[in-house]
Amino acid sequence: MHIARKLRRSPRRAAGALAGVLLLAGLSACAGAASATGVDARPQPARSPAQLLPEARKEGSVVWYTTFADDDVNHMIAAFQKTYPGIRVKALRLSADQLPTRLVTEQRGGKYTADVISADCEPVYQLIKVGTLAPYAAPQQMALPPQLRDLPDGYRNVVYVLTSTIAYNPEAVRKAGLQPPTSLQDLTKPQWRGRFSIDPSAINWYESLISSMGHAAALHLVEELGNNDPQLVESHTQSLTQVQSGEPAASVNAYGYKASALSKKTPTRMAFSNTDPLPSAAALAELANRAPHQAAAELFLDWIMSPAGQRIVVQVTNHTVLGETAADDKSVWNPAKWKPAWSLPVITADTYNRYLTEYQKALHDG
C-alpha cells in the first residue's frame, strides 16, 4: 500500500513570500512612491558599446540582482567578461519572492546598490509600479507576442521564457504500474493519489491556467489536484531532484528547461510531457533606478539582449529565448506544436495576492 508523504514547506518561507507581495501592494497604493524616486518614464536613447565602454571601464563593475539559477550565474558572468574584460559583474542570486522585497527595502532606505534586475514578469511589474526600476530599451529587442505587449514602454527586455511541464520518472512510473502522465487531468485520477508533487509558490503557472482555461476552470483543476494529496515542494529545483530519485514519481509544474536538461543526462529517471496549451512566463532584464554604474549596466543589458548574449543564455542555461538567432530546445519550446499559455505580465498586487491565496488554499498549503 502506497503511503503518501506530505512535504511541509517552511512557514517562514511561505510567510516571507506573502510579506514581500503585501509590502509591494502597500507601496503601490501610494501613488507618490514612483514620483518620489525621480524615475523618468521615457526610455533614454541607447548608446553604442563604443560610447558606453570607456565610461563602463571607469566604473569598473556592475551589480546584478537575478533569479537565474545558481549554477548558471557564474557561466553567464564569464561570458560577459570575456566580451568586456575589465568590467566585473557582482551577482546577487535571489529567489523570486526575495528579490522585490530586497530592492524595495534598499531603495526606501536611500540605498541604491543594484544596477540590473532580472526576474519573472510579475514581480518586475510590481517593481515598475513602485518606481524602483528605470525604463531602458535595449537596442536589439525582439518582437513580442501579443500577450506580452501590455508591458510598459521601456520595460520589455524579455531575457528568456519559462515553460512549465509535467516531469516524471520513467522507472518509478513503470514499477508502480502507472501510465506516463500526459495531461494535468491524469494526475487527478485515484491511481496518482500522493504520487506527484506541486510547487505552491508557482503563481505564474496558475496564471497561465487562468489565461488558457478561464478562472473558474483553472481553480477547479487545481482543487482537484490539491484533493489528490500532492507532495508540496519548496522549489522547482527540489521537485525535479525528488522526481529523479523516484519519490514522488512525477511533478505537476516543473520547469521545462530543467526537465529537458536532466532527461538528457538521466533518461531512465527523468522524462517530461508538455501540455497544449503550454504554461509560459516571461522573465525580464531591466535597469534599476539610480543605478550606481549606469554605463556598465547599460552595456550588460545590451549584451544579454543581443543575439550573441541570447545565444549564451540558451547555451548556458537551456532557457528559451524569443529571438530567432538562438537554437532553442525544441522539446521545450515549439509554438507550432504547443501553443503558449502566457501568465499575466501586467497584474495588480491585489490580484496577485488573491490568486496566490486561492491557489495555495486549493492545494491545502498551510
Plain-language structure description:
The protein has 366 residues and is α/β, with parallel strands linked by helices. Helices cover 42% and strands 16% of the residues. It has 2 domains: 39-161 and 282-333, 3-Layer(aba) Sandwich (D-Maltodextrin-Binding Protein, domain 2), CATH 3.40.190; 162-279 and 356-362, D-Maltodextrin-Binding Protein, domain 2 (3-Layer(aba) Sandwich), CATH 3.40.190. The chain has 14 helices and 11 strands. Strands 1, 2, 3, 4, 5, 6, 7, 8, 9, 10 and 11 form an 11-stranded mixed beta sheet that branches. Helix 3 (49-59) crosses helix 12 (294-305) and helix 5 (99-108) packs parallel to helix 6. The longest helix is centred in the N-terminal third of the chain and has 18 residues, at 11-28. It is globular, with a radius of gyration of 21 Å.
Looking at this protein, list some descriptive labels:
single chain, 366 residues, alpha/beta, D-Maltodextrin-Binding Protein, domain 2, globular
What is the strand and helix layout of this fold?
Elements: H1 11-28, H2 32-36, H3 49-59, E1 61-66, H4 70-83, E2 88-93, H5 99-108, E3 116-120, H6 121-129, E4 133-134, E5 158-168, H7 170-175, E6 196-198, H8 203-213, H9 215-226, E7 231-232, H10 236-245, E8 250-255, H11 256-265, E9 271-273, E10 278-288, H12 294-305, H13 307-317, E11 340-342, H14 349-362
Parallel strand pairs: 1-2, 1-3, 6-7, 6-8, 10-11
Antiparallel strand pairs: 3-10, 4-10, 5-8, 5-9, 5-10
Helix pairs in contact: 1-6, 1-14, 3-12, 4-13, 5-6, 8-9, 12-13
